[in-house]
Each structure stands twice: as C-alpha cells, then as structure tokens.
UniProtKB/TrEMBL annotation:
This is SHOCT domain-containing protein. It holds the Pfam family SHOCT. Transmembrane segments: none annotated. The lineage of its organism: Bacteria, Bacillati, Bacillota, Bacilli, Lactobacillales. Residues 250-276 form the SHOCT domain. Residues 142-229 form the YokE-like PH domain. It comes from Limosilactobacillus reuteri.
Length: 278
C-alpha cells in the first residue's frame, strides 16, 4: 500500500516495497517503511532515489500527489456514477413491479365486483382460485363472469365459473399450479343438474365429452346449471345473428359485383348457394 511517508523531496510517491530496497537490512517483501527511511526518502528527489536503487529492471512507482488525487477523484466519480445508475435501475425496476402489482390488483377488483354483481355468496375454500382468475378471465376482451360456485373433489376444492364466453372449472394447487377445464359456450350441447340427499352435482356435455362436478351445495349447483344453459343459448343466438348479418353483407357485395359486370350470373348463383349452404 502507498503511504504519505514515501513522498520524495520533489513530491513523488515511492512504492513502500521499492523504498525498503534502499536498506539492505529490511525484509524484501514488506511494505511498511520505518521513520528513518521515510525521512531519507523525503530528503532526496525521485531521480536520486531511482539512481540509488540502481536496478535497471525495477522502475519505482511515482506520481505527483495532485495527479494522484485527481485520478482518485475520477475513480470516485465513476463509482458514484455506477452506484447512481444502479440506483436508478433499481428504482425503474421497482416502479415496473409496482405498476404490474397495481394492474393485477385492479383486475382482481373487477373480478370481485363481477362476482358480487352475479350474487355469488359462498365460495368457501376457493381463495387461491379467485386470486388466479385475473390471469384467466379476459377482462380486456369483454369476458364477464355470470355466475360461480365452489365444489369439492376428494379433499380439495375447485371453482366452477360461467362467463359470457365459456365455462371454467378451476383447481389451483400450491404445488402443481392451476389446472383448468375450459368449455366454449358454442361447444356445449347438454347441461344437467341432479340433487342427492344433501349435495348436488352438474354435468356439462360438449360433443362426446361429459364433465361432471359433484359435491356442490344444491342451490349453487342448480343456479350454475341454469346459468350455463342460458349463457350457451344466448351465445349461439348471437353467433347465428352475426353469421346471418355477414351472409347478407356478402350477398350484397356479390350482387354489386354482378351488376358491375365483374362476375357472371352463373358465378353469382354458385357463390350464393355456397354462402347460404343450399
């Protein structure tokens, strides 16, 4: 380590190890400089010290104190700049995390409000599933919860949700994460409800697949079955109306092409049959 005691008469710094070479009795690998030797160095110039060392392969470290302080100041500024940059990056990262958390909380608030609007009351044991809903329900795409109910499979609970687009059966475990079954409303061709001595169950059929959820409270089970039936009917009706409107629009466009002479009567008739599926 360089010390102030190794400053020469003309203001240069000498490495403590090199300074100790001036005294043959001093250990070769020490950096500590005794007072007597430091006084000797301070009474001679750097050139005189180098001449006394007399070893061509050894160049003593020397630098003017003011320049040394300037370099140290630059290093300090660089370190401060790095620390400041790291601090700004940390602030930016934290701001991004806060923004994400805020967005997730806002979505969760929307989910909870939708559940409230749907008169969903008892969702015992489904806290984890509800917290997972913001990542599942497409709020930005207009998806809305129409009804929800809890059920139990063996020793754990699941959450059944009916939206204006699909039916979701969600099981959010601590170890394996979320497991969900999604059935689009337009794929549903059967919904049934049954009641046992104490509990109820629902079955949802889409094609050749039937999904059955048991161990539900009777009222929520019945309400869920009714909601799914109505939601599926409404969705299919809306889709049919939309398809009908699209068909009419295509026919108008084809008729305009026929009137403009772009297509022939035969081409118009063939395309019309294709659109109307006749």
């Amino acid at each position: 380590m360089l010390k102030a005691s190794c400053i020469t008469k003309d203001g240069y710094l000498i490495c403590g190890k090199d300074a100790n070479r001036l005294d043959p009795k001093r250990p070769a690998n020490t950096y500590r400089v005794p007072i007597k030797l430091s006084n000797f160095i301070s009474s001679h110039t750097a050139s005189e010290i180098e001449n006394l060392l007399g070893i061509p392969s050894t160049v003593p470290y020397k630098e003017h104190p003011d320049l040394y302080k300037s370099k140290l100041s630059k290093v300090t500024e660089k370190l401060d700049s790095i620390a400041d940059g790291a601090g700004k990056k940390a602030d930016t990262l934290q701001a991004a995390i806060d923004e994400i958390n805020k967005g997730e909380q806002e979505k969760l608030d929307v989910i909870k409000q939708q559940l409230k609007d749907a008169n969903v009351e008892n969702l015992f044991g489904t806290k984890k599933e509800i917290k997972a809903l913001p990542d599942i329900i497409d709020i930005d795409g207009g998806e809305k919860i129409l009804y929800a109910a809890n059920a139990f499979i063996e020793t754990h609970s699941i959450l059944a949700v009916c939206t204006n687009k699909r039916v979701i059966f969600l099981d959010h475990g601590l170890i394996y994460g979320s497991k969900s079954t999604n059935i689009p409303l337009d794929m549903i061709n059967g919904v049934s409800y049954s009641k046992g001595l104490m509990l109820g169950s629902i079955s949802v059929t889409n094609g050749a697949i039937t999904t059955q959820i048991e161990n539900m409270q009777p009222y929520p089970a019945k309400k869920m079955a009714e909601t799914i039936k109505q939601a599926a009917a409404d969705f299919k009706q809306t889709s049919a109306q939309s398809n009908s409107s699209n068909d009419l629009l295509q026919l108008r466009e084809l008729k305009q092409l026929l009137d403009d002479g772009v297509i022939t009567e035969e081409e118009f008739t063939a395309k019309k049959k294709q659109i109307l599926e006749i």
